[in-house]
């Protein structure tokens, strides 16, 4: 069985973060493991508290994982401060981790900040260089490229610009922009567009976490990146279309769509 590790924050309401990642991994038939960077008190209406793990404890979790069950791929989500980022980079380099997908989580769908401003520079200079692919949404891509993205032409310009910051690839997610839900992968100097119809579903809590985890699973299976993204895109569209409606705000996805009907 393939093994995939998520390094991310916990969402007690089960829609995003570690919980979304592990559900995605199980639905893909891979063995999921987690190193928790922070506990959040959140639900579908917002983030009400964040309790960061001490960086050395994040390191200790990574030692336990890599010294025992080596992951085939790694997904990194919420990393809220620079010291946590530093320890993750050091450990992943020491253990020569492969197939690293970085979702540069900065702000939750509900609008709450999940990363300190000061950590953005560390993310860019230290974490991005070890990623095989990074998966910013439109606001995160704007933060990395420094200009406003209002069209698919802007997405392409931003992708080329961000690609200069890292040896790997960049996937800009269009969920916040297009009338459809078109994402752009810029990989080895080539643009790949993934077109999908916009699903009329306001429940999008955890879409970014889910997509990046699905990509990590597909990379663990050995698919080349453009194909891995295509398969992950099908998964996210399916989980959104399956139409779960839980909570008072932007609700979670339905990861059971691929498993069984009631
Ligand atoms: N209403 C929607 N219908 C179909 N796909 C969507 C919808 N909203 C988001 N997506 C897709 O979900 C994935 C996550 O995108 P996005 O919501 O932009 O990221 P984030 O959750 O990081 O803000 C992307 O593949 C995006 O195209
Ligand atoms: C712990 C944690 N990590 C990430 C997100 C972002 O979620 P989304 O996928 O909706 O952008 C979140 N709300 N909570």
UniProtKB/TrEMBL annotation:
Signal peptide: none annotated. It catalyses: 4-amino-5-hydroxymethyl-2-methylpyrimidine + ATP = 4-amino-2-methyl-5-(phosphooxymethyl)pyrimidine + ADP + H(+); 4-amino-2-methyl-5-(phosphooxymethyl)pyrimidine + ATP = 4-amino-2-methyl-5-(diphosphooxymethyl)pyrimidine + ADP. InterPro entries: HMP/HMP-P_kinase_dom, PM/HMP-P_kinase-1, Ribokinase-like. Its EC number is 2.7.1.49, 2.7.4.7. Residues 11-254 form the Pyridoxamine kinase/Phosphomethylpyrimidine kinase domain. The keyword Kinase applies. Pathway: Cofactor biosynthesis; thiamine diphosphate biosynthesis; 4-amino-2-methyl-5-diphosphomethylpyrimidine from 5-amino-1-(5-phospho-D-ribosyl)imidazole: step 3/3; Cofactor biosynthesis; thiamine diphosphate biosynthesis; 4-amino-2-methyl-5-diphosphomethylpyrimidine from 5-amino-1-(5-phospho-D-ribosyl)imidazole: step 2/3. GO terms for molecular function: hydroxymethylpyrimidine kinase activity; phosphomethylpyrimidine kinase activity. SUPFAM superfamilies: Ribokinase-like (SSF53613). Keywords: Kinase, Thiamine biosynthesis, Transferase. Pfam families: Phos_pyr_kin. Belongs to the ThiD family. This is Hydroxymethylpyrimidine/phosphomethylpyrimidine kinase. It comes from Yanshouia hominis.
